[in-house]
Design brief:
The chain is α+β, with helices and mostly antiparallel strands. The protein has 2 domains: 161 residues, 2,3-Dihydroxybiphenyl 1,2-Dioxygenase, domain 1 (Roll), CATH 3.10.180.10; 197 residues, 2,3-Dihydroxybiphenyl 1,2-Dioxygenase, domain 1. Strands 8-9-10-7-3-6-5-4-11 form a 9-stranded mixed beta sheet. Strands 13-14-15-12-16-19-18-17 form an 8-stranded mixed beta sheet. The chain has a two-stranded antiparallel sheet with strand order 1-2. It is globular, with a radius of gyration of 21 Å. The chain starts with 5 loop residues before the first strand and ends with a helix. The model has no long low-confidence stretch (mean pLDDT 93). It binds fe (ii) ion.
């Protein structure tokens, strides 16, 4: 790090060599993008944004881009076998391929990370259409997952060149999801440190919180976790590694079914978690069930909160407090048949942490699901 750190010659302050403006979009490789897009519309309230496929000049794949406030999800499927998208789905099932990050300079982002040891996914390429130009570049992170750097400062179109606006008549309303709070990666045994080093050395992130197996072990399902954050805190990537427990770690179950490392969950922020989760449940999103005893001593643990306990208890929303405030969170069940990717819904009220006080209740809930699958 020190040899490559760039310092401003006047202030001698370290300059962020990879300034990130936030998450640009998340792309899922799926077996059936048409149905996936419909699910994220109907269940999660994403709005149709753009479409790419044979009609727009893409011969071998179809993609649907959907948007809800600052969240943009893209669902892509291969039209034929024998290509990287079809192979990805065959190996991993439906899952996240691309965590795209917004930058002002996608060339510099690629050059700076490549010279620090990144593995190339795509050299910088500038795409053009009548709405302007957009520059992309990409590097690999854990597993087959990719970080794309996206500079869309000179682009006015719906999503990117190759796409056209997508305006279906089916258009269910939003559910109050606002932004990507964090994206968690599961990595293999003894692989957390190498990936922590990757985010530090190659991307200039720093480790802001660590959890060891004493923080995160229930009777069976142990894991370790380190939260990596970029300089301005807009992008946070916790990294999980399995830990030895009595039986199989939840991270190991993921690695088995995903056939390798990948994104475990995406946390989506809301400004009103009770309203959002009520809507999501009505639309069929399935959440982990927390025993009602969790709420018996909740106020003793977290102190005074603005919300009534009853709706939190009815919906299964968890609460945790840190030095700066509190947060409310809830976790879905996996959103595909393999026990791999799931979502977190989070509302922050000052707290900048990740709900450490809820790990025990949460992991016991995950273990009950693992047991039902015969994987504990
Ligand atoms: Fe999370």
């Amino acid at each position: 790090m020190s040899t490559l750190a760039i310092r401003d010659s006047r202030t001698n302050k370290q300059v962020d060599f990879l300034p990130l403006l936030g998450t640009d979009y998340i792309e899922f490789y799926t077996g059936n993008a048409k149905q996936a897009a419909h699910y994220y519309q109907s269940a999660f309230g994403f709005q149709p944004l753009a479409y790419a496929g044979p009609e727009t000049g893409m011969k071998d794949k179809v993609s649907y881009a959907l948007k809800q406030n600052k969240l943009v999800f893209v669902f892509t499927t291969a039209l034929r076998t024998g290509n990287s998208i079809a192979d990805h789905v065959y190996l991993h099932g439906d899952g996240i391929k691309i965590l795209a990050l917004r930058v002002d300079d996608a060339v510099s982002a690629w050059e700076e990370t490549m010279k620090r040891g990144a593995k190339n996914y795509s050299e910088p390429v500038t795409l053009h259409d009548e709405s302007g130009e957009l520059t992309l570049s990409g590097i690999y992170t854990y597993g087959e997952t990719v970080h794309l750097f996206v500079d869309r400062n000179n682009y006015k179109g719906a999503f990117m060149p190759g796409y056209r606006p997508w305006k279906p008549y089916y258009n269910p309303s939003e559910t109050g999801l606002q932004y990507v709070d964090h994206c968690v990666g599961n990595v293999g045994w003894n692989r957390m440190e190498p990936w922590v080093n990757f985010y530090e050395e190659v991307m200039g992130f720093r480790n802001i919180i660590s959890f060891d197996d004493k923080d995160i072990s229930t009777e069976y399902s142990a894991l370790m976790s380190k939260v990596m954050s970029n300089g301005n805190g807009y992008v946070k990537f916790p990294i999980n590694e399995p830990a030895e427990g009595k039986k199989k770690s939840q991270v190991e179950e993921y690695l088995d079914y995903y056939n390798g490392e990948g994104v475990q969950h995406v946390a989506m922020g809301t400004n009103n978690i009770v309203e959002t989760v009520t809507l999501l449940r009505e639309r069929g999103v399935e959440f982990l069930q927390i025993p009602s005893s969790y709420y018996d001593d909740l106020l003793d643990r977290v102190g005074k909160i603005d919300e009534d306990i009853t709706p939190l208890k009815n919906l299964g929303i968890l609460v945790d407090r840190d030095d700066e405030g509190y947060l409310l969170q809830i976790f879905t069940k996996p959103v595909e048949d393999r026990p791999t990717l799931f979502f977190e819904i989070i509302q922050r009220k000052g707290a900048k942490s990740f709900g450490k006080g809820n790990f025990k209740a949460l992991f016991e809930a995950i273990e009950r699901e693992q047991e039902l699958r015969g994987n504990l």
